[in-house]
Design brief:
This protein is mostly helical. The protein has one domain. Helices cover 77% and strands 0% of the residues. Helix 1 runs antiparallel to helix 4, helix 4 packs antiparallel against helix 5 and helix 5 packs antiparallel against helix 6. The longest helix is centred in the C-terminal third of the chain and has 27 residues.
């Protein structure tokens, strides 16, 4: 485990911070009041109303497992691999909901870009964890 490159832990710390921001965004979202929802654009209201409960659950899996998996990378634990893989599954399920099942709700460009970034980072974290396990950086 001591053979991990010097950049490994700093990257894992950044990954944890990224996922903690996602956790905060998730908590902010599920704690929205009807008054809060009334203050956003009609398109955002439509997207919020169109999403099924399983999509919200997928978001929870994505962010909380992402944070746990990133912490596992920092701690150099092999269980980072399956935990980050579950986070990626959560992201994919969330994306399916956002892009394929949003019905008549128009998905805003910023949401598309952000979800693309989230998906790429999730894939990168799974690949990093797999490489770390294969190289013996985590045990």
């Amino acid at each position: 485990m001591d053979n991990a490159p010097k950049w490994f832990v700093p990257v894992a710390v950044v990954a944890l911070l990224w996922n903690l921001v996602g956790c905060l965004a998730y908590l902010s979202d599920v704690m929205l009041t009807p008054d809060d929802i009334a203050k956003v654009t009609e398109a955002q209201q439509a997207m919020h109303a169109a999403r099924p409960a399983w999509s919200v659950g997928a978001t929870a899996v994505a962010v909380w497992f992402g944070a746990a998996g990133s912490l596992a990378l920092i701690l150099k634990k092999r269980w980072a691999v399956p935990v980050l893989a579950l986070s990626l599954v959560g992201v994919i399920v969330q994306d399916i909901s956002i892009f394929l099942m949003s019905g008549t709700a128009q998905v805003e460009t910023v949401a598309v870009v952000m979800q693309g970034v989230v998906l790429l980072i999730s894939i990168a974290l799974v690949l990093l964890a797999r490489r770390a396990a294969a190289q013996g950086w985590i045990a």
